[in-house]
Amino acid sequence: MNLVAENHNDHIESIVRAVLKPVGSPGIYAQTGLFEQVIEGLTVFISRRREPGTEVWKFPPVMSRDQIQNSGYLQSFPHLLGCVSCLDGGESDIRAAVERPDWIGGLEATELVLSPAACYPIYPLVAARGDIPTKGLLFDAASYCFRREATYEIDRLQAFRMREYVYIGMPEPVLNFRTRWISRAAEMATQLGLPHRIAPASDPFFGRAGRIASISQLEQSLKFELLVPLQSETEPTACMSFNYHRDHFGTAWALRTAAGETAHTACVAFGMERLALALFATHGVELKNWPAAVRKSLLL
Amino acid sequence: MNLVAENHNDHIESIVRAVLKPVGSPGIYAQTGLFEQVIEGLTVFISRRREPGTEVWKFPPVMSRDQIQNSGYLQSFPHLLGCVSCLDGGESDIRAAVERPDWIGGLEATELVLSPAACYPIYPLVAARGDIPTKGLLFDAASYCFRREATYEIDRLQAFRMREYVYIGMPEPVLNFRTRWISRAAEMATQLGLPHRIAPASDPFFGRAGRIASISQLEQSLKFELLVPLQSETEPTACMSFNYHRDHFGTAWALRTAAGETAHTACVAFGMERLALALFATHGVELKNWPAAVRKSLLL
Q1: Is any Cβ of chain A less than 8 angstroms from the Cβ of B106?
Q2: pTM over 0.90
Q3: A124 vs B24: CB contact, 8 Å cut-off?
Q4: What order do you get walking across the sheet with A137-146 strand by strand?
Q5: ipTM score for this prediction
Q6: Distance from CA of B24 to the nearest CA of A (A)
């Protein structure tokens, strides 16, 4: 590691110490009031760019295990999924379990998992409504998310907030939705004073078969990311992503357009903690020293 | 059930249908933009009443299992605790697990649980800092919480947001903190146009021993609740609670005052979804028809 990189890491670590606090588990942080002010500013900043006719949904951090399985998540990302387990049974069963030092062996899986992304509950909600109108459907989804990552760098949390805009409809307007959000997102990063670039990307699909899926995803240009140097210049952090799912969710949930075809879907996702950290890393931890235009954009 | 109660339940159910949407699991709802507007208004309404010198923390929906055990939660509420379980191991282990229809049998408990209340992570954070100053410490804590309840009525969710003000210090100022928040909370409910009363209460401690703990808690006046008729007049819903923990957390975390005594703690907790539902139940689902003073209080 050269001196420049070391200084950069020191800088990031001092930033993190000022706005986040480790609370006894890797990748889990308590967030200061200062950090939350920036998250709230970002929330409004993103809301103001919501397209007309968008339906707003906020989801709790847990969701139906059946729904996540039906979405194909278990096949693609089994290593990342967090499930909710509880002590079940009558009073004597639970009391006996708790008395054992290895009480966690008595846990049983519930019908719930921790949501791995904000948009998953949208598709079954829409499926229950019938056909997708010809002009398509726009959604704004927000949720706390959980992913059991193998490592937890400063920009990779176990629990984090994701905000998404989702479009469901015919392939061409779905691709147009993604294209205009890529260009809008780059403008947003510029307004926030964040150095950035857009790059093709792939999801961390599981295992050997997953590596083939990732290559195919890259070849088909299904995923792009907006990258901001946070931990390092050479490995910048994905703060937004732009995902074309083709007919993946349409097929999983039998989403049909009015013309009787399987609907396509796309989403733009904002990583709230990563965006906030990118702002602190770029502009420092004293809000009063941030560029006036950035503060105005974030109502700070 | 008499006709009045039936009509009341119809009213509540039509309210819920307008602002929440079941998403495939009992006690789990997607929340509409309208519901979120009211939650955001409540958030600001509560923040404006924050006392000077309060330190603000926001916590993710998961926390350390060791911390929750050390807090005594497992002994008191083992039936309510949600733990995070994952598929662990190498690629072939996880792939093999996923291929089995009973793959959930391969889940293993992680070091994380879902937070059952917003204030639990505060005490170990404070313990790591050394003695409590003579004037005590004030905190503002917010978190998504999870409780595995036995039944899920409209006012009893599995996942919900809790906001808390917490005081840590000597017994007398701790009790004063709680007393002034009881009176302030009643004023807040009045400002929001919510019919309410304050009543002694007890926690749903587990099992037979728990019933004795509940009686003792009532006898010692350790818990009060602000109740609003939501589902029924005879069984009103606790929308806020006022809890004196005595030296429970002080002993668990060796919190010491500057005078060398074990610190006492108290908290006031706001159930965000319950307060929002109480507002909709009282004033209807058309914000424009709400009393002007209530709308002003909530910036709506």
Answers
A1: no
A2: yes
A3: yes
A4: A197-200, A223-228, A237-246, A264-271, A159-169, A137-146, A54-58, B29-32, B20-22
A5: 0.95
A6: 6
